[in-house]
Amino acid sequence: MNYQNIWQEKLSLLKQEQRYRKFLPLEKIYTTPYAAYNNKKIIDWSSNDYLGMGCNKESIKFMQNAVGKYGIGAGGTRNISGTSKSIIELEHTLAALHKKQAALVFTSGYVANQTCISTLGKVLDDLIIYSDTDNHASIIQGIKQSKAKKFIFKHNDLADLESIIAKHPIDAPKLIICESVYSMSGDIAPLKQLSAIAKKYNALLYVDEVHAVGLYGKTGAGIAEELDVTDIDIIQGTLGKAYGVIGGYIAGSKNMVDVIRSYGSGFIFTTALPPCLLEVVKFNIEYVTQNQAELVGAQRQQVKYLKQLLTTANIPIHNSNSHIVIVNIPGGHRIENVAKALLDNHNMYVQHINYPTVPHGKERLRIVVKPQHTNAMLDDLVTALKICLVKYPEKLTDTVN
Q1: Residue 379 domain-assigned?
Q2: Up-side HSE of residue 377: CA atoms within 13 Å toward CB?
Q3: How high does pLDDT run on average in the chain?
Q4: Pairing of strands 204-208, 34-37
Q5: Which domain holds residue 92?
Q6: What residues are annotated to the active site?
């Protein structure tokens, strides 16, 4: 067997299907929305550091002091030397943020979803999972590993969900899973109605708030807080987007969290996050909470301005009420050319989203606006986008109905 030929065949297949991922090596420029790429300065329109906290001057200074105090490593798993005072305090902070009894910190949001959902499938006999069709890959992986019976309902379609869940016994263990803000569309989940369905059919409700924590609600607790939905059983979130660091977590009842802590292999058998990072996460959560109106208000104003510019320019955008701006540009080759032209000719990095992340014919640009992006930058972005769209016009074969 020639293994090199197999590797080459697999890679060639991805390239033929326009699914081969190319990574862009960027060097972030301190406290700005700029980055260095290929010996030139570009504007980053793709980073999920939504509020710019990853480059916040006060956070960086705090981190430097924390490294001097705690060093740079955790030293082991949570069971072997890795449970620090910092991580316990952060879990208390996260539980309080979501008004839950307890929280549990993971190495990433992906691992939090994968571990929690797969573990629920192992400890709840005959669990039935109902998952939104647009849920993240980490949720899908967790469902697969849970080996639970699963049903996929149409995106944000309450009637479809209820038509499926109503067919199952009321006393069967059930888990409804959704995201509060969907990263590839910006759609917001109808959490109040989902909560009502969960109650009606005796199901647990699991909500991924990764793209909402720090950005919605009076204290930044997410869409659940924004919509005043208080009875979500399990909330999953991240420390690597609006809070600008790294890590993920779940929050819920004391016993549920303890079950995941005690049974979840993705939690048990991995090195804990280092105290220096945990300390700056706590600092950033407090900073965002205290400056919520200023930071989020500035971001929302810039998002509103960009959507107005795009609409005026007759550039098709996805209709959503969130901070994520989606420009619809069907056609795998076309969107790749547009994104490349924005980078090469206009020094703007906008990540294009292709199949399999989105269906064929639904390709798009995903634009992330930070408070640090100025009106002039937004004006230039739309001007550049108009030039690139003219250069690479839509073809009849691009759109799939």
Answers
A1: yes
A2: 20
A3: 96
A4: unpaired
A5: 74-273
A6: 241
